[in-house]
Specification:
Distance between the termini: 28 Å
Order of helices and strands: EEEEEEEEEEEEE
Number of strands: 13
Strand content: over 45%
Helix content: under 10%
Shape: extended
Structural class: mainly beta
Largest sheet: 7 strands, antiparallel
Radius of gyration: 25 Å
């Protein structure tokens, strides 16, 4: 039996020139014209990811059964989002440090040696991971769209996973099958899997 724990921090830098106020160079009637591009943010810095995890490894029957379990808690501070400003400012979107994102879950894995002979062997590998992703803080930005389709957008908002799906939710009459009502801006789902894993078989 082996118990383990670790803590680490890492950073993720924004793209170059994201701090600077930029102009677009355009052609207009055979001349050069300029329009505003990124408004710039002199306070822009890297996002910082703090990760704490603990777990254990267990080996049984001379290593023929190996089990691992890990609990992880990852927090992203000053998260980088390409978020819009208030409409009254008339500024385009700007990468900003505005958020805090939490990722928590468990990791389970095991290796099982079913047959172990000098000339042949058979083993099974399996793993299962869980993930709970949530935007804890949106900073000073309100809910904003970060992609998707015209009829089904992906959004960032406090209390929801990153890129959650939002759109129109119809409600049908169970007797006639016709639409009774439609709820606009309804939360329609999470694009991130809350569980995923793998299963493998090795024969020699």
């Amino acid at each position: 039996l082996k118990l383990r724990a670790s803590y680490g921090e890492t950073g993720n830098f924004p793209e170059p020139f994201s701090r600077d106020r930029l102009l677009n160079v355009n052609a207009f009637l055979g001349q050069t014209s300029y329009t505003f591009a990124d408004p710039g943010d002199p306070t822009l810095g890297p996002e910082r990811v703090e990760t704490f995890e603990f777990g254990g490894d267990l080996a049984l029957f001379n290593g023929r059964i190996n089990l691992q379990v890990t609990r992880y808690d990852e927090t992203t501070n000053d998260a980088l989002f390409n978020a819009p400003f208030a409409p009254s400012t008339a500024q385009s979107n700007q990468v900003r440090n505005i958020g805090e994102v939490s990722n928590q879950g468990w990791e389970f894995s095991g290796q099982f040696s079913i047959l172990q002979q000098p000339d042949y062997s058979l083993s099974v590998n399996a793993s299962l991971n869980t993930l709970n992703n949530e935007v804890v803080d949106n900073g000073q930005a309100s809910k904003f769209n970060n992609g998707g389709f015209l009829f089904l957008g992906t959004f960032v908002d406090e209390g929801q996973p990153i890129g959650y799906l939002e759109g129109d939710q119809p409600f049908f009459n169970p007797e006639t099958g016709e639409v009774d009502s439609i709820q606009t801006d309804a939360v329609l789902g999470n694009p991130n899997p809350d569980q995923f894993g793998s299963l493998g078989l090795t024969a020699r």
